[in-house]
């Protein structure tokens, strides 16, 4: 298939493809291929179990796998997979909005907040975080040696899915 025909197929085949740049679609395709352990073009419970096992998590409950598969409207082929990610990402606020929320706690505009302070705020204000949610956040975005959280990088990762180089 020529590149022009391939491009038209992507643009015309499904609206979900217009939500992402070509490089993002390729990254999603790579992730899908990794998860499609049996290479049948669909991700099912067995594929999810094998993916978790490859990541070192061996005791995944059947109910957990069933809940994941049930999030899809039907069999999870690449288009469904991409649509699911599109719907999840659509709910993410723009980077500027998230940055502005953090800037409230950073009046000097340094791009860093004391981890203890943000932990206290997240656990005591508005939609309160649980200790487990705090642990997950700091596991994914550990504070630096001075105990500061780099919220600019955190916001970038939340909205772009990868760290800045």
UniProtKB/TrEMBL annotation:
Residue stretches making up the EF-hand domain: 23-58, 93-128
Keyword Calcium: yes
Signal peptide span: none
InterPro entries xrefs: EF-hand-dom_pair, EF_Hand_1_Ca_BS, EF_hand_dom, Myosin_RLC
Alphabetized GO MF terms: calcium ion binding
Record keyword Acyltransferase present: no
Subunit structure: Myosin is a hexamer of 2 heavy chains and 4 light chains.
Stated name of the protein: EF-hand domain-containing protein
């Amino acid at each position: 298939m020529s590149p022009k025909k391939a491009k038209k197929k992507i643009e015309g085949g499904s609206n979900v493809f217009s939500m992402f740049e070509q490089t993002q679609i390729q990254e999603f395709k790579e992730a899908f291929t990794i998860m499609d352990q049996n290479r049948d073009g669909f991700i099912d419970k067995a594929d999810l179990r094998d993916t978790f096992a490859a990541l070192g998590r061996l005791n995944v409950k059947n109910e957990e796998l069933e809940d994941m598969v049930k999030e899809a409207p039907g069999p999870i082929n690449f288009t469904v997979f991409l649509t699911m990610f599109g719907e999840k990402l659509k709910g993410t606020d723009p980077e500027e909005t998230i940055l502005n929320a953090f800037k409230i706690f950073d009046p000097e505009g340094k791009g860093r907040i004391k981890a203890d302070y943000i932990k206290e705020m997240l656990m005591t204000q508005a939609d309160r975080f649980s200790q487990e949610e705090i642990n997950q956040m700091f596991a994914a975005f550990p504070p630096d040696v001075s105990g500061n959280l780099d919220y600019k990088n955190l916001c970038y990762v939340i909205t772009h899915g990868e760290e800045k180089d």
